[in-house]
Every structure is written in structure tokens, then in C-alpha cells.
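DM from R.C. (forwarded with permission)

"hey, sorry to bug you on a friday — could you get me a structure for this? deadline for the figure draft is monday and I only need the backbone to look sensible"
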Amino acid sequence: MERDKRYKVLPLSFYKKPTLQLAEELIGCLLVKETDEGIASGYIVETEAYIGPGDRAAHSFNDRRTKRTEVMFWEAGHVYTYVMHTHCLVNVVSGGRDEPEAVLIRAVEPVDGLDLMYQRRKTDKLKNLTSGPGKLTKALGISMDDYGSLFDRPPLLIAEGRKPKQISRGERIGIANSGEARHYPWRFWETDNPFVSK
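My reply, with the result:
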């Protein structure tokens, strides 16, 4: 699929920074998915950092290397998708080779392909389209087929977006069984953005 000239795609060098810094700097970037049905995109407005092997909430805690987590051990800038409760979630691999870290994209603000998003999500509520990690993947058409690809080329890419007015930081969500790790302030979101999940 030929790259759409509308987007200024971020180079792989963008992802080569500490994971917490990357999680914050992804806020405002544009997540774009190209499919046969068309293009859908959204500004990233919420992320969570996962810094295994010492992070009990990370899939790679204790250097756990499985078929699912294999991509986390690759170079930064790869796509890590996985299924949780029937929902596909999308992450940006960070860290470096054999440093299994990742940033979960939790919410986006819709930009391109609104009709497509409404159709896929079967909702007529704009605020409900992409305000969660499972919602945004369904709306944009992101799937397990994207696993292991790179974010600097179609069909799933991250491009320059807009500068967020203000970024908030707090505890991650939905990781109650991860001991002290559940209190780490490793979630970032655009302050007061209506598409943030919680």
C-alpha cells in the first residue's frame, strides 16, 4: 500500500528514547491505519508505559519471553498487538533490542474516517468511538495482523500530529493484581480531552 502523502510519518529514530519519555511524547501524534475500506486516524490522547522486566504489570516481567511477547524484545518502533477479553490492544515497542518495554495506546481523538469508525463500532456517540484501548483498535481497524510490523510504514503508522495543550500523569488503569506496580505514575493523557478513557 502506497504511503499517503498527507502524513509526515515519524522515523524509527523517534522511538529510540526512554520509555516514559516516549509515552509522553506520543501524546498528540497521529495514529493512522490504512485498510481496503479506507483510512482512519486519530490523535493519541492517552498512553501507558510498561517497563518490564522489573514491572510486574508488564507482559515481559522477569524477562518472560513467549510467542506473544517476542516482539517486545525487538527494536523500538515495532507494533505489539495482543488480545485481551476479545479486544485487540495496540502497543509501541520501546526500549532496545532485548530490553522488552512498550507503550500501550489507550485512547485517540478521531480525525480521518469518521464514517468508517461509526460503522465498525456500531455506535452513534462520538465520545464513545475511540475512548479506550479496545475501542480505538476496532474503530481504526487495527488487528493481530499488524503484530510485528513497523510504525514508520503502512498499513499502521504514526505521524506528526498536534501539540497537546497540557499533559497529565497518573497511575495506570486495570492492573489491580500487579502489586506495587499498580501505583506507578506511568499513564499520560491530554488534560481535559473528552476522548481519554477515564
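R.C.: lifesaver. DSSP finds three helices and nine strands in the chain.
me: no worries. The chain has a mean pLDDT of 92.
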